[in-house]
Amino acid sequence: MKRNLFIIGTLIVGMLFISSASAIAADKAEGKTNTETTQENKGITPQPTNQKGKELPKGLEASDRKSLPPVSPPIYQPPLRGAPGGRVGGGTRGIGDELVTLFALAPNHVGLTTEEQPTLYWFLSNQTKYPIEVTFIIEGMIQPLLEKRLSVPIEPGIHSIHLRDLNLHLLKTTQYRWFVALIPDPERRAKDIIAGGIIERVELPEALRVKLSQGDPLNIPYTYAESGIWYDTIRAISELIEADPNDMNLRKQRAALLEQVGLSEVAQYELKQAGLVQ
Length: 278
Fold this sequence. Notes:
Layout: H1 2-29, H2 34-41, E1 88-89, E2 91-95, E3 98-104, E4 111-113, E5 119-124, E6 132-138, E7 146-150, E8 157-162, E9 175-182, E10 193-201, H3 206-214, H4 220-226, H5 230-243, H6 248-260, H7 264-273
Parallel strand pairs: 4-10
Antiparallel strand pairs: 1-10, 2-3, 3-5, 5-8, 6-7, 6-9, 9-10
Helix pairs in contact: 4-5, 5-6, 6-7
């Protein structure tokens, strides 16, 4: 009797071993690892991995990287120099039956740049067929350095002014006032809607130069912001957005910077256009 039980037990163990070996062979044929097989046997759903086998955050496929949690925005530290004031005009005005909002993306103090020919940004809420004029004046002077009409019509949104396209070079330690004017009636310029700011070119510190050259491009707006260099900050984040317009984190970062200098209306427009707020 004992001998029969021993034989039956041996046969059962053998059958279980063969079954397990077959399952492992089948899993190997499907490309599964021993870990994945063990997880399935325990009812655990394996986490997705990237091509290098590194586990991605739970519930995140490789194609969903743009859905990663938002990062903290750059924090702009205004330079400790001079009194507040510098941004002029801006806001909403009526033109006929339309309301138009015009802003210069400038802080309410002298904004700094390290570039000889920086890029400046401004905002228009609605498409316009009226002329838009850009003006540059050295602070304290009356005669403009430059007056340039832009091509119309101009679409709503954030627009750039590249000083290299205007052949304008900024001198160091010299303050310039710049304006964007919407001209509803060329014969009555008092009706112009005007927005502008003050910009000053400063020397790029060597420590900042090294930090910028060694850092991740995504960190460049942070580096400029913490150094109090507004115009280079807004250019850096805007260029990242132009390169990847579907990156919602970048748009949130620019909106946060605009909020920090009191441009809440432009920040809200940015978030609405990105579908991040109603």
